[in-house]
Records
---
Amino acid sequence: MASCTKIDNLVQAYIDDELGHSERVIFEQHLSECRVCAALLRRHQRVSAALFEVFEEDRLSRDLHQSVLDNLPAMGPTTLHEPDVATVNWRAKHPVSFWRTVAHLAPAAVLVVLVLVAAIIRANWPVATPSDDIMGVVMHSRGQTEVISDDSMERDATKVRDFVGADEWYETGSGSSLMLALAGPSEVRLNRNTRIKVHGTREISVEKGEVWLNIGRDGRLFRVNTPTGNITVFGTSFEVQVDSGRTTVTVEEGEVKVERQKSFKVLEPGQQSELVDGREPTAPREVDVVSMKRWADRIQPEKAATALFEKHVAPQTEQVQLHAERIFKVNTVHGGRPRAVKSIHLNWTPGSLGTDYCGYDLYVTDERSTPLFKEHIPAEVFNDPATSSYELDVPGQPIRGTRVLHITVVPDNKGQEPTDFTNIYAIGI
């Protein structure tokens, strides 16, 4: 495919219908695959239209071509050593008047003015930049890959360097692959016959297929929703497979929480777990992650797409306000023996009216890091300035035989401000 620089030099000739057949075919093929150059052509066309209107009164009403030819001096055959003396003598005896010279030069002068005006307008024309809802960039696309808008459900072919927006579906066909880079930065690789939805820079849904994710650690949760459960991470590398009512999660680096309703399992590097509809996540088991990742290693970003991402999307990461997770150790022992715990009590410093606080996810494990349950406290609880405490009931039966509870408090980052927790303790029967 022709480079963008070559296409840039042909834009005005294309508008003026001065390209040959082969050049026109190459030009139009490039524009069908490159949104940046297509936008450049539209800007040139708007400038040409503006110039056409500005110089409407000064446009020539007739063709000067024949008139110029009729007034050219007769040229006889000459050589370098034998000048056309008759022609030189004729010109000397019939000097051209000043105003006639001006009239002959007028078309050229108008052309120079047009070029200068066009250059000024182009220099000051607003440059097209991504809108605020841009989440990332398409870094790789092979085979049949499509993007579907959530609003219109219209399907379009996915192209490298396309911008990724919120609430867009991406789908790969048989023998196809796709890679998206999201602000974070995070990488999402899609194997064949895969369908995902991008909700935002830190949340996607996997409807079917196989996805490998490298999540950038910018202090915020990254959530992956599937038909049978959810995955929650900060910064890590892992795979998600969704097939026939089963979700398989495999971890290469970092820590991943595999969740279904109020139950969860924590996966470490080299471990795998499954989520089946109606059941708790399976216990972690050891697997060969290296061989499982080979398909994802073959999907690499293109240089032009990487440059576009670094220019327009990567700077968004610097604007993120980070709210980190906190871990509390809660002692359940009373009188030398662990109490049966029926609820967890939280205290915090109340905020002022109108403050936009985060909600929180609570992950509760015992002293052996065995997962017990998870729960979510919505932001509305913390946004009420009259409230400074909350009691969270243990689901099902009370927790028995545990001397220490580890409670991980994780902000959902749906608000702007973190809560200042002052105390968390267990309430026994």
---
Amino acid sequence: MTVTAIVGAQWGDEGKGKVVDYLAQEADLVIRYNGGDNAGHTIVNDLGTFKLRLTPSGIFNPAVTCLIGPGVVVSPATLLAELADLDSRGVSTKGLLVSERAHVVMPYHLLLDQLQERSRGEAPQGTTGRGIAPAYADKASRVGLRIGDLLDGDFLRRQLREVAEWHDPVLVTRAAAPLDVPSLARQCLEWGEALRPRIADTLPVVRRALRDGQRVVLEGQLGALRDLDWGIYPYSTSSTTLAGGASAGAGVPPHRVDRVVGVAKAYTTAVGAGPVPAELADDVGELLREAGREYGTATGRARRCGWFDAVATRFAAELNGVDELALTKLDVLDGLPRLRICVAYRAGNRLLDSVPTARALEHVAPVYEELPGWQRPTAGARDLAALPDEALAYIRRIQALVGVPVRLIGTGAHRRDTIHRRDAAAPFERGCRPAWGRHLREGAETAEGLRG
């Protein structure tokens, strides 16, 4: 039995959907454990191209049971539309269940989200406006609605009246209409009826899978640099994106998670505001954006692009206890004559080997190491032998800097465009302990030296 947590090792949009879809072909149970419909996963396989916001990426294996766990905030309208689209395209959704404990993203959450972002004026946080933060805030304030509540009309009306007392003063102050409780209750009951066959206590399903030794994949949203506690707060999401949060958000005891896969692109992308030290505001950044089709799955927003940030990825690997990396979109770097990797941050006369708070991160400069690029394509490669020597050297250097072996390599959008190193392959993984020395100046020869 293996319980594998899939986590983002950068700012999000790393390609977790492709990795989950790939690993789900050998899984029994896939559980989405955090976030909402504010970010999406793009999946390309033999069935076509799909953009998922809430449905677990294991849905394309009809033998897999897919759960939306209690750590997720669910927009019923988004979920129902997504399931209808999948069904219309011949993808069976019979195996999808939604935890009765997952919280509901209500229409007033979207309104509150947009009003809050508007009030920030010239210092927006880059929210998607999909109500995720207000939904989690209501959850923490104990005035939220849960998916199971959509089946209980009396409870719904009582709870919505309390919600109105909570939110109406803010809405009226900001020139918005107060909540229409009867209309909201009717909408909730409609959603409840539509979702009734899928609403369940998911814990027995998880417990049975663990007892029977099934293969379980835990699917996360966004990346470590957007985590509520450890990310670039306040430019963060409103849930934990880390492997530790997977246990609570899915209902799996922490000690049962025996494999953590960190997903990182072969370069850096980010959507939304906040510091991204390796970002490129030049022709190379634009080239990466266009070659990688770097536009948000859920929002369509252009992503900020830059060189691979080994400091941020190592930070994410340490926080998550990453056992192995899945490095995606290697092919996007094809043809670049020279590549750079951010190996440290310079803050005044100090060099940093870890990610400070966002307030401090805004003032650092990246320290780069340069490597040769490769001049023949890697797109579609499915074996290490098909990669140019320079691409192998690039991957080895990432391994050495992050301190984690690369076991999956993405060479295209399609599921089959994947190199999977199932064996330990010792010669390839030699030097996986972080090697900081050869790029540093001013006598800082080790990671310990950087901390000074």
---
Amino acid sequence: MSTRELGATTLGVWSRRAAVDVLSAGQVDHLLATGVWQRVLPGVYADGGYVLDPLQLAVAAALATGDPVTRQPGECARAVVCGRTAARVHGLPLIDDDDAATGAAEHLVDDVHTFRARSGRSDSFSGAGRELRRHRLTLLEEDLVRHPCGLLLTSALRTAVDCARLLPFEAAVCLLDAGLHRSRFTTHDLAEAVRVRQGWPGVRRLAAAIASADGRSESPAESLARLALLPAVPGLVPQVRVRDERGRVVARLDLGDDELLLGVEVDGKRGHAGAQMVAKDRQRDRRTEALGWRVERCTWHELRARREDVVGRVLHQARLRAA
């Protein structure tokens, strides 16, 4: 094997063990020190100068626990990518991944199930700016899927179940909303997951998150707004269509209360950037206002850092319209 072949079967990341089969330990350390290679996790490297994608980071997590990812026939798996890391591979959102509004930086945290964990408990190790958390899970056969690259990871449903235990409540609900909206699993699947796990650790947290999930929400920002506002204005529901006198849909609101004619529009992390989008939003607001609606707008930063202001503003409008 040559250095060009390192990572050829593992999506461009490789273990130190593989590296020292080609180079001396000193040469490996020199490549790391000069930035030709980067250290992804302890004992796992990649070429320097670029940002790894979620699948590459998942492969790195498996390699860091001693799993070869690409196994020989009959060779047993040593690890299963799970939790946050599996969620990223499945494209399920994690609101605490690199959020400037709160300073959350969980994009640096990876989760993996290992068959060699001690005492059935989770442990972790850190390095290269990342933290790898190793868990000992009770996995059913249907909980596992294999990526075409050979990586073994938990299914979207099992990933959601685990994240409901690992994540804060609101983060778990946002993930469940996204999975339901994208048809990665159904409400029946989630209910069955609770049923078969009665008595398991974290099942109450899972059940509570499922009870608050709603697949009609189309983004984490909409999910956060719903969770924040429903206790104050319980008539708000996701994706309300505003129709004119002819029954034509003139707007679709992120949240709306048909009785109060009150709507809420939410900008996500990236917001509605650009003059064209701002003009489009204003035009829609004018159409809804002409039909008697009042639309309040809020941003991701407000929902994360100034929630009380958002709730107070919407509640004030609800009271005015109810009077």
